[in-house]
Amino acid sequence: MSIALHGIGLGGGIAIGQAYILDKSIDDAIQHTLEESEINAEISRFEEALRNTRKELEQIRGTIPIGAPAELGAFLSLNIMMLGDSQIAQAPIEILKRESCNAEWAIKLQAEFLSSQFDEMEDAYLKERKNDVIQVLERIFKNLEGNKFDWQNQGREEHGILVTRDLSPADLVQFKESNFAGFVNDLGSLTSHTAIIGRNLDIPSVVGVAEARQLVRDDEIIIVDGIQGVVIINPDNLVLNEYRKRKKEWQESRQKLKAIRKEETLTKDGTKVEILANIEIDSDVEEVKYNNAAGIGLFRSEFLFLQRENNLASEDEQFEAYSRVVREMKKKPVTIRTADLGADKNPVWNSTHGESENPALGLTGIRLLLAEQGFFRTQLRAILRASFYGKIQVLFPMISSAWELKQAITQLEHAKNELREEGIPFDEGIAVGAMIEIPSAAIAIKSILNLVDFVSIGTNDLIQYLLAIDRNDESVGYLYDPLHPAVISTIGHVISNTNKAGKMISICGEMAGNPKLTRLLLGMGLRKFSMYSANILSIKKIILNTDINEITPIVNKILRSENREKIYELIDKLNEDVDTF
Ligand code: PEP
Ligand code: MG
Known about the structure:
Helix content is about 45%, strand content about 15%. The chain contains 24 helices and 16 strands. The mean pLDDT is about 90. By secondary structure, it is of the alpha/beta class. Magnesium ion binds near residues 437, 458, 460 and 461.
């Protein structure tokens, strides 16, 4: 039987292929012998899986639907308690150390041991508890598997489609190297980092599909429509043929867009606009060059640190990565954002800071960098050294005040002094910028502008903090609204003040790559857009087809309106002749 599921499409067109379900069970565990030097990292991996399992169970307990059996809450509490029991939390670590084996194998041995203990019990009630314990171990096992998937060797078959509970931003970076034709996640919200990077991959993908893993079976044929956000399991021939046709049409329209790659980005009235690219890792530069971006408007440098277990990228390693990008981009600007870690981008080594109740309001971005000054200074030195080989701009994330920004600039000055004393060359005129993504910085934009050469609006976080919606929580995803009057007027305030001050401004959040919003932003005075490479040409096409004088009256009406329906109506009018495919 064919089933259609709906979720959030991350673009990338349409893929048709065989499902590969990531989650396996304890029975599939394979033994690996570890070197002495690998044991500690393996213990950390087990402990992380334990923490994730706890979070997962607490989340389920917190969202029990009304009308569910009363004992469900108690049952989940019991499961959570079990996670603290030494037979679950400690015994696998002892096995792991004793056998020098991987965590999965240690869990399997412990599950076998506990099973046999339960089987020997006489008491029927206690015997029954065996399943509860095994289920908890199974859940830890799945969390372990999720954070250690062999991307290089699994799913190599050309048209595999990965179906999984969730892929972390770090997983997605590895996904780029794999051969999968698409992916489907049970979890996911519109502006989570997983969604952002997923879009950047330009691979058919749908997230937030809720029950995908329950309904899809390994090797079953599925269609992933990343444009409409639809997943079709086991399609019949009629549906298959229809989607093959749509896939072809999509590919042809993408092909046509290539014709404008080399064209200068000018509006119909001759206004010059710059389209820059967002990248996560240095190898993304290939796509940037192919799409002929005017430079890199956002290098999310934190991805250099996310895949690492214990050690940090050294100054030299960072220097290599940054200078590679700068050299590749020739004289075009490369905006390196200093590591924006924390919340959903928490590296393994930072787990001590990861326990906050509200990570998005906690020690993230510049706050974490100022708290970890050694780490910050190392990164600044690497960026400065690379600046000698091209045009780098340094960008500080999550700035909340001029006072905080001054501290970041002081660190940059210290790093410059160190290099001067060591006789190491760097670009003395390096431009300095601040991300405007916290409402306080947007409101007090004038105090920020005094200190920087440029600003870049991070609309993903700005919307999160303005509307008080966790960007990673799909249950409030329906409230995420770039057209909320408060969002539009805050962005308008930042653009007009920055333009008045004669400083440079760009938007590097998802709004910049949304074809429905291009004309609105142009009409608001934005001239620099930074986005994932896959969207550059479709946004360029809209810019080439826009006359700013013609759109200005409609944009002004939008800026004056506080009525949601009216704003949406005017946006449709603005985009009447825009192809938002
Ligand atoms: C943003 O917040 O809009 C942004 C560009 O940064 P990130 O998505 O990496 O938080
Ligand atoms: Mg941000």
